[in-house]
Amino acid sequence: MLVVQRVAQGVSAYDTAPGGSPASAAAAAQPADSRQLLDQVQGVVAGPAGASASDQATSRQVEAAFRARVWPADEGGFLDQRAQARAAYKTLLAAVGDWGPPDTIQQAMETWRFVQARSLIDVARSWVGDRDRFLDAARQAGLSTPDRLVVAWHADGGGTLSRRELDAEAAFLQEYRAAENRIDDLNPIERLGVLGGPEPRAVLASAAGLYAGGDLDGAAAAIDRAISLDTGAQGAGVVRLAAGVAVVSVLVAGFLLGLRRLRRWFPSLARS
Asked: What is the pLDDT of residues 198-216, one digit of tens each?
């Protein structure tokens, strides 16, 4: 009964979200047939991501029954492709975690384009490995990552868009860590140089905040500004210190000159 309800509601057999998501337009446009029925039965029994050993055994029995009673023997090679693609899909879902399957791969599995699905899964698994390394490095740097990677992942599953986004965020992380290592605590001269304005580390912290909010361009600009402030702080402090010394010198010189004049005008002051 649950299988019939899922088919009638257009629920995808390859989605991992609670309750299931709608099937892709390509799959929904097709009338329910033995392919969708097998997908849905195995989805209810074991789920696309796998279940207990007992459920997996039941799932294999269901597939064997369909092989023996529904499809002709010459379809065996195609069903083998399906089994291999489903195993690769299960492995991918385990690797990607709660991000879930990308639309491109889910659609390929729903419409039984298993050769294409395997090719897409290979690309996706390579990307997921790079993603995991990036996320670990970002956490070690104390950065909160935006949802841009998740959006790109669901769009093309490790393809051009996902790769470009991952490369951009990895480049930001590299720049951020380099800036963090370069910008140290301010000495007294440097503090004088940034007096009245933001300190380099505060600006660098704002870069992390902009990145967490998804503004990569703004975050990169904030890093550049933090480095610029840090680079110029010493020189600005020296200039301000020199200006301050000059002002004090002028004041002292003016005071001494005034005192000398007072002594000329009032000789009694010179004897006191």
From this structure: 778 888 899 999 999 999 9
Mean pLDDT of 122-139: 97
What are the angstrom distances between the C-alpha of 166 and each of 28, 127, 154, 205? 32, 9, 13, 21
- Among candidate residues 91, 82, 213, the one with its CA nearest the CA of residue 144: 213
Choice between 17 and 103, residue whose per-residue pLDDT is larger: 103
Map out the domains of the chain as residue ranges.
187-272
User: What is the DSSP secondary-structure string of 19-69?
Assistant: T--BPPHHHHTSPP-HHHHHHHHHHHHT-TT---HHHHHHHHHHHHHHHHH
**Residues 6+ away with beta carbon under 8 Å from 185:** none
Region 33-61: mean pLDDT is 74
**pLDDT class of 236 with cuts at 50, 70, 90:** very low
Tokens 């299931």: give the residue.
20
In the beta sheet, which residues pair with residue 176? Answer: none
Mean pLDDT, all residues of the chain: 78
- How many angstroms separate the CA atoms of 9 and 41, rounded? 15
3-state secondary structure of 202: helix
Burial of 12 (0-12, 13-18, 19+ CB in 10 A): buried
Q: Is 176 helix (H, G, I), strand (E, B) or coil?
A: helix
Counting beta carbons within 10 angstroms of the beta carbon of residue 118, is it exposed (0 to 12), middle (13 to 18) or buried (19 or more)? middle
Maximum C-alpha span of the chain:
128
Question: What pTM was computed for the model?
Answer: 0.76
Neighbouring CB atoms inside 10 A of 95's CB total 14
* Residue 87 reports pLDDT greater than 50: yes
